[in-house]
Amino acid sequence: MTKIGLNCRLTDNLGQRTKRKNNSSITFRSGYIQIRNTTNNFWNVSRIEHIRHLAQTGRAVKPLETPLTHERLLDRLSFTSFNMPLEDCDADVDLAVSLAYGSIKLAAPIYFGDMSFGALSGIPNIALAKAADLTETLAGTGEGGLHPEVRKCKRITVQWASARFGVDLSTLSAGMAVVIKIGQGAKPGIGGHLPSTKVTDIISATRKIPVGTHALSPAPHHDIYSIEDLEQRIWALKEATGKPVFVKVGATNYVAYVACGIARMGADGMILDGFGAGTGASPLVVKDNVGLPIEVALPVVDEALRRECLRDGFSVIAGGRVSCSADAAKLILLGADAVVLGTAALIAMGCIACGMCHTGKCPALLTNAAAYTTHETLSLDWATSRLVNFVKGFSEGLKILVSGLGFKSVKDIVGRKDLLKFNEALTYSKKGVGY
Amino acid sequence: MELARSSDALVTGMGSGKLFGNASGVTILDRIVCDGAQVTRPSIDPYREPIETGVCIGGRLRLSAPFAVSELWKMKTVIKRAAVVAAFSMNIVAYLGKDEVTDAERPFLPNLLLDYGQQFSEHAAGIVVNSKERNSVRVDTDSKTQGPLFLIRMPSVDDPTAYVSSALMGFDAIIIDEDYDGLTDIEIAVSEADTALRKYKLNGRPLRDRVSIMAFSSRIRGADDVFKLMGLGADCVGLSQAATIALGNVSDLNEAVFCFENLILSLQRELKLLAGAAGVSNIFTTVVGNRELFRCIGLEKRIMQKLRIKPGGA
Ligand code: SF4
Hints:
CATH superfamily of chain B: Aldolase class I
Bound molecules: iron/sulfur cluster
Number of strands of chain B: 15
Order of helices and strands of chain A: HHEEEEHEHEHEEHEHEHEEHHEHEHHE
Shape of chain B: globular
Oligomer: heterodimer
CATH superfamily of chain A: Aldolase class I
């Protein structure tokens, strides 16, 4: 394994263990900060431990037995028939997928969620882009311009979002595709938000906004008020960059119609982001109440696209709380071509799910305020190798699942809802409230 | 509740930890999600564009936000007094119940709801008749255009016929109170009342047009619950416990008023965020009873039918 060790800045919320060391640089053997519990109900210790295990070993762990809890609808779906493959099925399962009418080929159906330079502090952005290059997957770069090191990577997408932060033609053409961001799963209908504490010199330069101001992206695109407007933007971006265009939307009540509109207006794919997806900063009230879980929205979108004969070649990338290979397999069965790893990727890089991203004081040095000079930075090699391992372990798990379902290629299981069954037994509690 | 300190909506990092699971304490409201507007129905930027939160109760009581502070008699004196002042300064209403109006509170009468028969009630925003004492009260339906509103406070029940008959008696507003020996969840009672009152036609117009619905419950925790109850048909939602918790141990009256005002302001901001995300510019005209803006996640069919909210994905 490559360099292990995370030079960690000490903050109050690390608990006793680090405080005693009195502001010296600390190194854990695994590189991860030890945790006993998290503030987030979904990203609990067992989910985090699972991801860390993959990221450390690069091998799958019991992909069929995760997730361990049953809170989501997705967790209550199980495979109708499954035969555990006997031997290493690495060789004979093909995870490669092609997106955007064949113009983008991925070695595995994985897309690293759009996280901006600003929301993340730089090194994690580079690690994500590098890991995408190394594993032949794809990384979204979020709104707000590209870090010069990220720009050097090939397998990235560039976002065209409502504030147009840091957008120019060379930036737009820098990736494999352009993403028009309409909404995100954490807060559909609300614009991006980079808190003022995180708008440092370097961010100010990439976003072209004053230091120390909140970067609040508008909620709507002020030039997209209809599907026709969207069509104009899609084609303008295609003409200007020559790259495929994806449209990213949050999962909402009418998302199936929106999806059909997106496909009909010439986009090459969509990123569908569900409830509970990550965010750097978002009003709690919106995060907890707006939008649909991905497992509810995705099958409806897939069905609507098929009904309108728009599904062939058009890509659906689904995200929002993908935490293990089983989640990915189920989403693919529900109609996704690829899945988004956002928070999961951060966890592979050491995130402890403390929910402090908005403060710029990330204990894991991922979402801290970006600056030209800092004493403590995340080790790029370490972060990249963790991500690469994570993708390897995740893919291996997915291979086992695809093979167990009786298929040779992940492409063949896209949209095969018939291979899933819903566990009714876990459905309702006495009061009628519950699943 | 940090809201009382900041006067702004709470912003945090990373994805929601909310699970629509079976954990204890998960309510029907928790299983309702709001819409986010996209593309064809663009959202409204709550940070930059105006969003109207004002509501009108009983045709003539105009409030700046759909909030009421209820159960004042259960609160500590200082919090109670702060609530009365804050209700006036923020232009919402506070329900004083049977408590005496002190001299200090008299200037705030235009924003107070008093029980029937109390001193000064003719100068209050509204006079509340408790349904258990209804028979002893004669409602004067003629003085409909001015003076205090006549409201009837009823427990939350499954069967909406009682609400309909109260509306027919001429009350300006119905307070559905879960803590007034309510028999069913406030969500269901409000929705059923709204549905029944909309169905019942008087002189060709829905009865709902003449009567407002207020929902009171100590279970209401924040702007999200208010927004959802409005979607189910409430014009105004009463907070009680939430306010007490938010103010905590405040002992100084001025500080308590300050915190109360901040709390109302932050709740209003949060309401605007939810409205903006859903593409709504006027909460009163667009959200009240508009179940299309909501979807249920993991609710039983029987309850969904009563709420008339579709399941997620539909
Ligand atoms: S990225 Fe950092 S601040 Fe955000 S939840 Fe993870 S560890 Fe906490």
